[in-house]
Specification:
Layout (H helix, E strand, L loop, with lengths): L1 H16 L2 H14 L4 H25 L7 H24 L3 H12 L8 H13 L3 H12 L16 H19 L6 H28 L8 H4 L3 H16 L4 H15 L4 H11 L25 H4 L1 H11 L5 E3 L8 E3 L1 H49 L5 H47 L12 H24 L1 H17 L59
Helix pairs in contact: 1-4, 2-3, 2-4, 3-4, 4-5, 4-6, 5-6, 5-19, 6-7, 6-8, 7-8, 15-19, 16-17, 16-18, 18-19
Length: 553
């Protein structure tokens, strides 16, 4: 009985935490109070959906460990499906029918709610109300037997038997109305679907595989044969340009070798700029870094609050670019095809470089921690041995121990600072490499390595937006992410320009030196290195111990 009560309490907590009606009321209140608040109302739905889908995936992974149950996942799945439907309804209420269709498509492609009958049923109902019975029929078929453009699983997207039966009944009612045949039975409809649609889908897939295998040998179509001379000339010109843009293995190796050679060492001029910026202070890591450990959560997914309207719109259009075009930001020797997906892959790689460097720095810091802790314990043991045989010279031995301890603490601080200076130099080198790579990718505001604080802050904001973009694409899928970017592009293009916020930065040349570390220092009370939280006495670290590094997922 206690177990049942605990399960009921846990389920009630899940229902309270993921209360769809609360999100719906918040969004509706926002929109009903001011019709100009539609974008903010949409944001409420989008933010909740992204977080809840992520939580549902984590719950599914925790079922095996017993930290979650199927009932918990089912409750959250229903809430997510409800939010998708209401999100689409919000766009319908605002007469944004294209946005509503995109919302339904995102719902049926959602990894959590995409197999629930509710979203498919509402999607088909919406198309019927829009007087599009053929589109509604395709939706029913995708849900029941599969065969959509992105569907690779036969048998349909909806697996729950109860949901499938309801969809079949709705499908039958629609077909009866279209055919004006009330005598049509469900068995006849199923048989017709099996013979007309399922077989057709399989034939199309087989033909697609054949076309893919022999695409180069296909004869030209009649339309191609009937082209006039000007079109033929244009095609020849396009073919020549495409031929010039072909990337060979040798070209890739050449560009890679040049990039490696350029970024192998930090240039003397750039190093001199860093030294000038440090002044009399010890070197520190670049602040802010281009990438944070965890994916950023933007207040506005379009990035206009962070970058301004013009730059945000430019980046969104770069990410929506599907037609490869040569990038010449790297000069004559740099000719490559850059698409939005490629840009996100490059940014993802730069983020991984930061993660690996952070892991390497953590390993070095842990090794020094272990070494100094062992030496400290050995020294304390020697101090105890001295005191045990001190006899009448106790005060002299105590003073000797205090002097040795003070010397040891100074040595610890020196070794720590040497390591931190080395780590800082490596992170500066990493920043230069990332700036060079992103310059080659043709991103705005990247023009080779720089130490200018204002430029680095703008670059960090750009990387924050792109970091969020590749994280979202991995979570919701490429198609859904492109739909979201397209909607954001339309909104930004129609809005009044918003300038880029002016960053509040420190001096671009000199930093104040950090406060001196007291010696002796049995318990550190000052930050060990820039960007980390101070260590307080309540944590009881050993001398020489570093603070925990930021955690990368």
């Amino acid at each position: 009985s206690n177990t049942i009560m605990n399960q009921q309490e846990q389920q009630q907590k899940i229902e309270d935490r993921y209360n769809a009606q609360r999100i719906i009321n918040e969004a509706n209140d926002k929109y009903s109070s001011n019709k100009n608040e539609l974008e903010n109302a949409q944001m409420i739905y989008q933010s909740a959906l992204l977080d809840w889908v992520d939580d549902a995936r984590e719950m599914e992974n925790n079922i095996a460990t017993g930290n979650s149950s199927l009932e918990d996942v089912a409750v959250l799945k229903t809430s997510i499906a409800t939010l998708w439907v209401e999100y689409a309804n919000l766009n319908r209420t605002a007469n944004m029918f294209k946005a509503a269709t995109e919302a339904y498509e995102q719902a049926v492609n959602c990894p959590i709610a995409g197999n629930t009958g509710m979203v498919w049923k509402e999607y088909a109902k919406y198309q019927i109300e829009r007087k599009r019975p053929k589109t509604a029929q395709k939706i029913y078929l995708r849900a029941l037997v599969g065969g959509g453009e992105s569907d690779t699983v036969e048998g349909g997207a909806v697996s729950n038997e109860k949901d499938r039966n309801e969809l079949w009944e709705d499908f039958l009612a629609m077909v009866r109305q279209i055919k004006k045949d009330p005598s049509l039975t469900l068995e006849q409809l199923r048989e017709a679907v099996d013979t007309e649609h399922t077989v057709k889908v399989r034939e199309e897939r087989i033909q697609a595989e054949i076309d893919a295998m022999s695409g180069a040998d296909q004869p030209p179509s009649k339309k191609q044969k009937g082209m006039d001379m000007s079109s033929s000339s244009s095609s020849t010109s396009n073919a020549q340009r495409q031929q010039q843009q072909i990337i060979t293995a040798e070209a890739v190796d050449s560009v890679a070798s040049a990039l490696i050679e350029t970024t192998k060492n930090i240039s003397p001029a750039l190093n001199a700029e860093w030294l000038a910026r440090d002044g009399n202070a010890q070197p520190t890591r670049p602040d802010p870094p281009l990438f944070s450990p965890s994916p950023p959560k933007l207040g506005d997914p379009s990035g206009k609050d962070l970058l301004g309207t013009e730059l945000a719109l430019k980046l969104i259009r770069i990410l929506l670019n599907k037609s490869p075009s040569p990038s010449t930001s790297g000069g004559k020797d740099h000719l490559c095809e850059i698409t939005g997906g490629t840009i996100l892959d490059i940014v993802n790689g730069c983020w991984m470089m930061t993660a690996l460097k952070e892991k390497e720095a953590t390993k070095s810091q842990s090794a020094l921690d272990k070494k100094l802790t062992g030496e400290y314990e050995k020294m304390e043991s020697e101090f105890d041995s001295r005191l045990s045989v001190a006899g009448g010279a106790l005060s002299v031995v105590e003073q000797m121990n205090a002097n040795d301890k003070s010397h040891f603490m100074a040595m610890c601080n020196q070794q720590r600072q040497q390591l931190l200076s080395l780590v800082s130099s490596e992170f500066r080198h990493l920043l230069a490499i990332q700036q060079e790579i992103l310059t080659k990718a043709g991103l705005p505001f990247f023009n080779g390595p720089t130490v200018d604080a204002s430029s680095i802050r703008i670059q960090a904001n750009i990387c924050t937006f792109l970091h969020s973009a590749f994280y979202l694409r991995n979570r919701i899928g490429e198609k859904a992410h492109e739909s979201m970017l397209s909607a954001q592009e339309c909104r930004l293009a129609s809005q009044e320009p918003v300038p880029m916020p002016i960053p509040k930065t420190k001096s671009t040349m000199y930093h104040l030196p950090p406060p001196p570390v007291p010696v002796p220092m049995p318990i550190p009370t000052q930050p060990i290195y820039a960007g980390q939280q101070p260590i307080y006495a309540s944590q009881q670290p050993m001398p020489g111990q570093f603070p925990p590094p930021p955690q990368y997922p």
